[in-house]
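MODEL INPUT / OUTPUT PAIR
PAIR INDEX: 1
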Amino acid sequence: MQPKTGTGKYERLLERCAGFEPIPTAVAYPCESASLSGPIEVAKKGLISPILVGPADKISATASAAGIDLGTFQVVDAPDSSSAAAKAVEPVRKGEAELLMKGSLHTDELMAAVVARYIGLRTGSRISHVFVMDVPTYHKVLIVTDGAINIAPTLEDKVDICQNAIDLATSLGLEKPKVAILAAVETVTSKMPATIDAAALCKMAERGQITGGLLDGPLAFDNAISKQAAQTKGIRSDVAGDPDILLAPDLESGNILAKQLTFLAKADSAGLVLGARVPVILTSRADSVRSRIASCAVAMLAAHARRKKPGKIV
């Protein structure tokens, strides 16, 4: 059966947000139109309550130029982007904010503040990135990880990357997310380390080292995404054709895959960093309004899941 086409997957996420209270969110350096209008628009939809951190005069000037009414939103003055990143982390550490959102500063500036020793937001888990994608030719929301942070993850890194994604998918309402661990082939061979990692991850899940998900791999992309392709190759799998999560072997392949889906399959993508004390919303100037809203909706659901299980890092 061919996947159903059409949009509405992100809208169903928004429906899940109905009834939840807005999440206090520190926004680091929202000093251009898109990075300022985004959180304000999302706040109007009741998803977040933004704390705007950056040069107060520059934020005010940006709002005036873009016709944005800042109303009663809190502004925390910080002279430049690096200090804004550091100051945006402070309300999170104090428990005054439960989400962190990237403004118009560089991602590496924000992440430097997140991972800073002693004053950042590190946990015992490896930090990883997910693209939460609405692909018109796929029948449900698809999570692609990791395409932005871990360049060449080790097997141990992949355990955390996988667990982070499973925990997020669970917070979105999935009982047992299906994880397809990608490689170039579906057989295990020492010539392709990604296939050995995939097999090890599956066994680790059987032994309880990864929990909450159903894993299968190695799977080539066609076998992972198409039940028919898997059946043609004689692969019996409860994951093939129906994954919720695609675990890429490295950053390059994950990044290429997500951007191919965006630009060739017309997918929308929401970006989130997991494994820190709170979810970090990563937006790009190229993101559509729909993608920005979806990023915040996903982060909001993750934050509310953490409230139910305060010891759980999502």
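PAIR INDEX: 2
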Amino acid sequence: MAPVITADQVKTLRDKTGAGMMECKAALSEANGNLDEAVTILRKRGVAQAAKRSGRTTGEGLVATRLAGDNATGVIAEINCESDFVARTEDFQKLVTDVISALLALAPGTDPNSVIAAGSPIAHQVTATITKTGENITISRVGRLEAGDGVLGTYIHLGGKIGVLLRLTGVPAGKGQSDEVATLLKELAMHIAAAAPQYATRDQIPADVIEAEKAVYRAQVENSGKPANVIDKIVEGKLGSFYGQSVLPEQPTVRDPKVTVKQMLDTASKSLGGTLAVPAFLRFKVGESQ
């Protein structure tokens, strides 16, 4: 009869080795509840050694993106390691590919973070890759967008240091695969990579963020002696500058600072005969989430 493994035993082994909960429970079961034997089992499997590396800084790595064959789904992931050398190894590259493939295989509406949850096949693969490479490896973030009634675009910059995934809506039927739309998607993605907007629309900015910005601007001019209505106008003017820096359609384009992203979309809308917009994008930069 198999021994009953308690939560306290699992916690003790986990504290001792740093290994994952499922690995600890399996090792204790195999060791019939013997803590020292379970530690040995984990060490033989390389799990304990991998766990000891978990505290190391992972400021290098790669961002990867991919579109499904039918372009209905796009995914993006940031996988980190300690050195650029390991990021270029076959084992690390395989992990990146497998993470992207697992994300694409998810059913629509599934939380993409389920792919990297503790106990998942990818989580076990991370542990195995840590053991093989000798470096700490983490999957910092993953994302997924569905095309829906729009089209998707991706872009990788600096050999995988920055990645962008975006959704463009308003493209007229039959023109989603046109060269003009492909060029526009690339231009938008390259702009997002370079300009790092925080929001796709003003509506996506949390109310507390806007209030915090207003408070800063008001504090800057509250002792100026100006009337309250003038101060309000100054605050609104500064808030407009904040939008111009943070909201994608209000940013000056990288290619031509005299033209905003919205103006670029408006021009393309007239050419294509639609009303184009970018309601969502994901921009990952290696090390930015550390």
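PAIR 2 NOTE: The radius of gyration is 24 Å.
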